[in-house]
Amino acid sequence: MDYHIYQEIPTSQYIQIKLSLECTDRERITLQLPAWRPGRYELANYAQKIRRVVISTAEKTIPLKKITKDKWEFHSEKAGTYTVSYEYYCNQLDAGGCWSDTEMLYLNFSNLAFSVSNREKEEISLQLHLPDAYQVATSLQKLSKHRFKADNHQQLIDSPLIASPDLQHFTYHVGKTTFHLWFQGEIHFNITALIDTFRSFTVRQIAAFTDFPAKDYHFLFHLLPYTHYHGVEHQFSTVITYGPAESLANEEKLAELISVSSHELYHFWNVCRIRPSALLPYDLSREAYLREGVVAEGVTTYLGDMYLLRAGYYTMQQYLDILAQKINRETMSHGWQYQSIVDSSFDLWLDGYKAGIPDRKVSIYNRGALISLCLDLLLMDRNSSLEDVMRCMWMRYGRDQKGYLLEDFQRVVTECAKDPETMEDFFRRFVFGTEDLLPRIEQTLKSVNIYLRKDDNQDPMEEAYGIQLDDSQKIIRLHPDSPAYRSLILGDTIESVENKATSVKLGIKRVHRKKQVSIPTTNREYFIKYKLISEGAENDKRAKWIQ
Ligand SMILES: [Zn+2]
């Protein structure tokens, strides 16, 4: 199969695609466009972004029939070359989309490449018709300046590219692998220092898994002028979008970019190779239900940051501040009372990437990371660690890309801990169950001399009344145990506040009606912000945890 891609009018954001297929005599061929993309488990229905699909031979146009919202079929009349021509609209500049303008062409083939019947294993060549000055950042095999090759369809959809005359390229080496850093956008930080940090977390992660089976790995960065934060993992690359680019002059913001980079590199093993069975291979035509979100994103979020502590990039207090943010996010929602992380993983297709209705679900990232922390420290009490577990997952399921189920992960954890009863109890309560994680986190962290304390800065409305407001005084969250929950509605705007002896009187606007509401003061606290502090001497467990 051979793709030719043209950017006739870059600012129209339509690109022209010609896909040539060799067909046999009277063959029925189906063309399936992706409905979602790897790394984001929700339907994107990319077919809404293509227009005018035409099949032709050198002599004529061939009839084409649409059989579902994103699937077409045609019949060849005789053996020969058939060309599928279509246009794709590239207007989504995030880590998983496509973008066209006068400065670049950015493609994720998981958005726009057809899966062609009976040709899953066929080699695919790609010719980009772009100005000479354009460089191309991609993990696809380069045949000539703008010509590339993928071994098969799965590789093509897992190999994004950025083409631009403005790309900046840097490399570093670890073992036999060359790591490429490609930047599209302005660099406002010290690149030498950044590369040192990347090298240190790369070394640490490779040591954890023992090997990194790739000759090259590419970090593709879009540094954008507006606020943005997104990363997507691939087999031999990652795309990371971050903005505003100037903010990266600030160390705290740069730490966010480094954190997402460490997270995405960890996905090289966990998800891209240690892959839930439901995702092997990627069938982008329909939902792939997975229950392994706690492993795929929870473990990655936890260890991605942990390796920055272990590599010496974060200080302990910096790491604890990040961890405290996760704890605060966890305690602000009561979704954990209603849905386990396993069920929230399954439901990603429903509302995994939006706020959704209140207190319905948990985040596989946030709660997943906190579960991973507790699991890691529990394993350390049993002479093992989450790192040992993931190395075993790598050997057993990752290297040969066998696919695993949540039960396989639990089995590996149990084997590493050599304590089936404790591990069974942990999984039952926190992974399959809906138990409050906060007391467990508090108790677990004490074992490494880290203490959960009430933060000095509390929001009085959140703490005393269980009401969280946004900047425009609109109510965005209500504590279900608070009296406020019984008289206020999400979306009400507070216009006046009058503190009384035993209550607070609120003037609110609800839709277009104004109301006065009195909320009694109680003797309990509702939303509380926590901080973590490190106290007391190092102990052996803690030394092992951060080494
Ligand atoms: Zn991730």
Task: Report on this structure.
The chain is an alpha+beta fold. It has four domains: 2-164, Sandwich (Immunoglobulin-like); 167-269, Neutral Protease, domain 2 (Orthogonal Bundle); 280-450, Neutral Protease Domain 2 (Neutral Protease, domain 2), CATH 1.10.390.10; 460-520, no CATH class. It contains 15 helices and 28 strands. The strands form seven sheets. The chain has an eight-stranded mixed beta sheet with strand order 5-4-8-2-1-12-15-14. Strands 17-18-19-21-20 form a five-stranded mixed beta sheet, covered by helices on one side. Strand 26 (503-510) and strand 27 (513-520) form a beta hairpin. Helix 5 (293-310) packs across helix 9 (366-380), helix 6 crosses helix 9 and helix 10 packs across helix 11. The longest helix is centred in the middle third of the chain and has 19 residues, at 191-209. The radius of gyration is 26 Å and the shape is globular. The structure holds zinc ion (ZN). Residues 263, 267, 297, 300 line the site of zinc ion (ZN).
